[in-house]
């Protein structure tokens, strides 16, 4: 039998249920769920580009795993963690075997190559300075 009064929630149930955010974050948009206040993803995956960014994270690590991980990271370090997770997810999708390790190895190789080049240039500079000093020394002896 329908009641003439509108259905009201109790104050207890209102306090227990988190209120939905105005617009879902990118993660919740991707997962097609309501974005609740206190969503661990909301401040890191914007509504605009966050869904695409989160798609890679979800595919590689899974939303539940990332959510659990972020709850264990101190709030002041979460942004760094999310940036790192997003980078690793993109790297894993590009290179499923090595992920970001292939980038690290390439950069280490480049550093080694540049260090060898720098050493050669420093040697050339030192030899040029010695040659100039010798030329100046010989020029002084000729004028005496």
TrEMBL record:
GO biological process: hormone-mediated signaling pathway; positive regulation of DNA-templated transcription
Family that this chain belongs to: Belongs to the LOB domain-containing protein family.
Residue ranges crossing the lipid bilayer per the database entry: none
Domain LOB: start-end pairs: 23-125
Database matches in InterPro entries: LOB
GO cellular component, one term: nucleus
Name the UniProt record assigns to this protein: LOB domain-containing protein
Organism, as annotated: Genlisea aurea
């Amino acid at each position: 039998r329908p009641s003439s009064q509108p259905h009201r929630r109790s104050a207890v149930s209102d306090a227990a249920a988190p209120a939905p955010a105005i617009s879902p974050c990118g993660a919740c948009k991707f997962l097609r769920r309501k974005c609740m206040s206190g969503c661990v993803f909301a401040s890191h995956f914007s509504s605009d580009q966050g869904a695409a960014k989160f798609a890679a994270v979800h595919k590689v690590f899974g939303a539940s795993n990332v959510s659990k991980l972020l709850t264990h990271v101190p709030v002041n370090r979460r942004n760094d963690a999310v940036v790192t997770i997003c980078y690793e997810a993109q790297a894993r999708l590009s290179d499923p075997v090595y992920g970001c390790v292939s980038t690290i190895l390439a950069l280490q190789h480049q550093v080694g190559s540049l260090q060898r080049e720098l050493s050669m240039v420093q040697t050339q500079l030192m030899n040029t300075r010695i040659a100039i000093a010798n030329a100046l020394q010989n020029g002084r002896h000729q004028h005496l």
